[in-house]
Automatic annotation (TrEMBL):
<dbReference type="InterPro" id="IPR013328">
    <property type="entry name" value="6PGD_dom2"/>
</dbReference>
<dbReference type="GO" id="GO:0050661">
    <property type="term" value="F:NADP binding"/>
</dbReference>
<dbReference type="InterPro" id="IPR013752">
    <property type="entry name" value="KPA_reductase"/>
</dbReference>
<protein>
    <recommendedName>
        <fullName>Ketopantoate reductase C-terminal domain-containing protein</fullName>
    </recommendedName>
</protein>
<dbReference type="InterPro" id="IPR008927">
    <property type="entry name" value="6-PGluconate_DH-like_C_sf"/>
</dbReference>
<dbReference type="Pfam" id="PF08546">
    <property type="entry name" value="ApbA_C"/>
</dbReference>
<dbReference type="InterPro" id="IPR050838">
    <property type="entry name" value="Ketopantoate_reductase"/>
</dbReference>
<keyword id="KW-0560">Oxidoreductase</keyword>
<feature type="domain" description="Ketopantoate reductase C-terminal">
    <location>
        <begin position="97"/>
        <end position="195"/>
    </location>
</feature>
<dbReference type="GO" id="GO:0005737">
    <property type="term" value="C:cytoplasm"/>
</dbReference>
<dbReference type="GO" id="GO:0008677">
    <property type="term" value="F:2-dehydropantoate 2-reductase activity"/>
</dbReference>
<keyword id="KW-0521">NADP</keyword>
Amino acid sequence: MSNGLVPLIRPLQECRREGELFMGSTTVGAGKLSDVGGDDGLRAIEVKENGRGQTILGSVSGGKDGKVDSVELLELFQSQMNAASFPTSVVERSALLRALWMKMFLNCLINPGCTINGTMNEELLNECLSVQRVVSPQLTIDQDEVKFLFDEVEKTGKNRNSMLQDLEAGRKTEIDFLTGYIRRVGEEHGVDVRRSRELEVRVKDLERVKNTVGT
């Protein structure tokens, strides 16, 4: 599970040799407290949960009916997650694709804006929706339906989003897989994505400044 999974669906489907492609989405907020390398070459990462959300699992490579052949494997992983107090559910392909796009909208609206201390507006959401309709026309998602995502913002209000954490740590952010993806696909299909383009440029400018200061 990772932010920006929507752009990875097709490449992953093309490179896999056989079997199903499982993906997941979560809105649980978390922040990394430490990252320490051990003598055995493994890294121990300590994280703090900053807000409860929803986690789902499913297959994006099932048949047209959306049914999953390897239900047992998914349910095993689900039971392990639930046993670890990480509430998880298994959904069909259409529901998973919808959730992945919803998370994409959430990340494109929140992460870049918070990273540059800017504000979000409905025009940016409309750009994301326009690109979604080009890439996944079989899904009908309207603006009102997406607004429930902002409930997740309240649940994770104390969370420092992953893009901001990456920027502060001097790591490359996920902007290419979020707002950058919306911008690239939008431009390919003649969608007006000027606001997404501006956010992408500003975040990359911050990356360059951070890397310059850190060297």
